[in-house]
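Q: Got a minute? One more chain.
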Amino acid sequence: MRIGVAAIMGGWDSGLTTVLDVLRTAEAARERVDRDIPAISVQVAAAVPTPVPTQGGLLVPIDFTFDDARMDQLDVLVVPAIGANSPPGVIDALMRPDISGLRARLRDWADEGRQLAAACTGTLLLAESGILNGRRATTSWWLSTEFQRRYPRVELDMSRMVVRDGHITTAGAAFAHIDLAINLVARVSSQLAEFTAATLLIDQRPARSVDSALGYLSTADRLITDFETWARLHLAEPISVADGAAAIGTTRRTLERHIRQRLGTTPNALVQQMRAERARHLQRTTNLTLAKIAPMVGYQSTTALRKALNASQGRDNAEAQPSVVSHN
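A: Always. Here it is, folded:
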């Protein structure tokens, strides 16, 4: 997954750096979990090509600008919090020329059905652009009243830390940047997301400041993670969902229910997705032909593998369309 993070002049240091730290931690941990999990690449984009100062004075190196053609290669663009501490301050910031330009770029991105994500005050950039009209979204608790007043066409859901509606994902207050980033990692692999969350929160000493950062660990579905771990070890073999369920200590019906409720798919479809991911990884990183790769990922012929890869690509494209709405 190729993820772009927007660096906004005067933005909150923690919002930007937290997203970058979580995503880079996940990529660093990927080979320890399973090197066949798709890579997570992270790049920083901004309105200008020079380093962008945060609210605290950090200078953030920029990989490319918002109008660079490389923006089109991204799978997701993340908008972290802008540097304002009151509703009037946020509204004033939205009118700045650099942020107005970003809002226009976000509208173009949304019109193309591309994936967008935002947290805290960054959610108002999406709302101000009209991107959230008719969609469910969340925002920071101290912005909820102003958000509802200013954007009545948005279905505001303050009961959840992260809300995904189609190709748009929003998250709550400052620490929700962690939840948002972990949510993006989970789209690549639940197993990797859990490992990353545990790595970042390995020190479990009580601290109120990290309570809201426990979101993913408290809601992670252990059955799904265990099934993914088991399945990745057996991708070259015929996989029986019943055998997988038994191996992780549950029933097939229970496993199917958890995967359907949490991921909106079936165990068999999840296995096919993992097989396609591993096949693509082998294509990118080795000189093996499809004929050699097919049995390594559980297919008896090149034709069957090619059909599975095409089907997987079709699902990926469908999920990026704005007509597909999924509430996670």
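A: Residues 2-219 form a domain with the Rossmann fold fold (CATH 3.40.50.880).
Q: Perfect, thanks.
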